[in-house]
From TrEMBL:
This is Rho termination factor N-terminal domain-containing protein. Residues 66-112 are annotated as: Disordered. PANTHER family: GLUTATHIONE TRANSFERASE 3. InterPro entries: Put_GTT3. Residues 66-83 have a biased composition (Polar residues). The lineage of its organism: Eukaryota, Fungi, Dikarya, Ascomycota, Pezizomycotina.
Length: 331
C-alpha cells in the first residue's frame, strides 16, 4: 500500500478499469472498486520501471517519495563540482515536489482505506440504491402473491357484483326493516348465568335467548303481518301488475319470452311508489284495513322500523332514484 493510494481511490471505477487495461493487469474485471484500487497500486509499484515514463501514470508516480527528482538533481550537481575543484560548489537548492503528500496524511489515508476494506462498504451510493430497490420489489412481489392467494380480492369483487343491482338494494332495505322489527317483537328470555372467572377478571354474564313462545301469541303476528302487508306483499302485487318495465320490454304484447318474463317480473319503480303510498296511509293516517289491525300494532311497527315511517319513506325514495338512474344508464 503506497502513499499514492488516495490518488487511485479518488478515481472512478471506469477510469481504474482503463488504467488496468493499459497496464495489462490480470483478472481485474470481477474486482470491486476497493479491491481494484489495491491491485492496481501493487501492480504499478511492482512495475514502476515500465510505466513511470508514461504520461498516463505521471500523476501517480510523482506522489511517490521515491520518484522525487531531488536525488537525481543532487547527484548531477555533485558530479559537476567534483570535475571543477577550483570553483566553490554551489549550494544545491532544496527542492520538494509540490504534490507529494506529507507522511502523516499518507498514513492517515492508508488507515482510512484499511477501515473501508475491513467493513466492506459499497463502492458507491448507486449500488446501495439498487440494492434497496431490489429488496423493495421483492417484498412488494411477496405481498401481492399473498394477497392473491388469500382470495380476499376475488370475494370482494363477487360481493360488489351481487350488490350492484336494484334487487340487492331493495333486499337490504327489507332485511333491515325485518331485523329491527323482530328484535322488538320477540323478547329475550333469561336462561342461565355464566360463572365468574377471577383469574382473568371475567365477571358472571347472564345468558338470554329469544323467547319463541311469542310466536303463539297475537302480540307477534299482528305487527309482523301488518309490516309484511304494507312493506312487502302489497307493493310486490302492485309492482307485478303495474309493470312499466315489462311493457317497455315487450311492447305491451301478451305473449312473452322466458327472458323477458325473468327480466321484468316486478317493476322496481311501481314497488317503491306503492310502498310509499301504503306506508303513509297506514302509519300516518292510521288506516287499519277496515279495523283488521289495531292502533297498537301500527304503533309497534312504526317504533320498531329504523326512523319510523320517515325512514321507510326514505328507503322508497332511494328505490325511485335508483330505478331512474338505472334507466338512464341503460340508454
Amino acid at each position: 500500500m503506497s502513499t499514492a493510494l488516495p490518488f487511485l481511490n479518488k478515481l472512478r471505477k471506469p477510469e481504474l478499469v482503463e488504467l488496468a487495461q493499459r497496464t495489462d493487469l490480470k483478472s481485474y474485471r470481477d474486482l470491486t472498486k476497493p479491491d481494484l484500487v489495491l491491485a492496481l497500486d501493487k501492480h504499478l509499484l511492482d512495475n514502476q520501471s515500465a510505466f513511470e515514463n508514461d504520461k498516463t501514470f505521471a500523476e501517480y508516480y510523482k506522489r511517490l517519495p521515491s520518484s522525487s527528482p531531488v536525488k537525481n538533481e543532487s547527484s548531477v550537481e555533485v558530479a559537476s563540482t567534483a570535475r571543477t575543484p577550483g570553483r566553490k560548489p554551489k549550494q544545491p537548492k532544496e527542492t520538494r515536489h509540490p504534490a507529494a503528500p506529507p507522511p502523516r496524511t499518507a498514513s492517515r489515508s492508508s488507515r482510512v482505506q484499511a477501515v473501508v476494506d475491513a467493513v466492506h462498504l459499497p463502492p458507491s451510493p448507486a449500488v446501495v440504491t439498487d440494492a434497496i430497490d431490489r429488496q423493495t420489489r421483492r417484498v412488494r412481489r411477496g405481498l401481492d402473491q399473498a394477497w392473491i392467494a388469500s382470495g380476499v380480492q376475488e370475494h370482494t369483487d363477487s360481493v360488489r357484483a351481487n350488490l350492484s343491482s336494484l334487487k340487492a338494494v331493495f333486499t337490504v332495505i327489507i332485511l333491515l326493516e325485518a331485523a329491527f322489527l323482530l328484535r322488538d317483537i320477540i323478547p329475550l328470555a333469561y336462561v342461565t348465568t355464566t360463572p365468574a372467572v377471577p383469574a382473568v377478571h371475567l365477571p358472571s354474564l347472564p345468558i338470554k335467548l329469544p323467547d319463541l313462545f311469542v310466536l303463539l301469541t297475537a302480540s307477534f303476528w299482528a305487527p309482523f303481518s301488518l309490516w309484511t302487508l304494507t312493506n312487502l306483499a302489497l307493493p310486490l302485487v302492485a309492482a307485478y301488475f303495474f309493470n312499466l318495465s315489462w311493457h317497455a320490454a315487450t311492447g305491451g304484447q301478451v305473449r312473452r319470452t322466458r327472458s323477458t318474463t325473468s327480466q321484468a317480473s316486478f317493476d322496481p319503480l311501481a314497488f317503491s311508489i306503492a310502498k310509499a303510498v301504503l306506508v303513509y296511509k297506514v302509519y300516518v293516517d292510521h288506516f287499519r284495513f277496515f279495523d283488521v289491525f289495531s292502533y297498537e300494532a301500527i304503533a309497534v311497527v312504526n317504533e320498531a322500523v329504523p326512523g319510523g315511517y320517515s325512514g321507510v319513506l326514505a328507503g322508497t325514495a332511494i328505490g325511485v332514484i335508483g330505478t331512474l338512474y338505472e334507466a338512464i344508464l341503460r340508454r
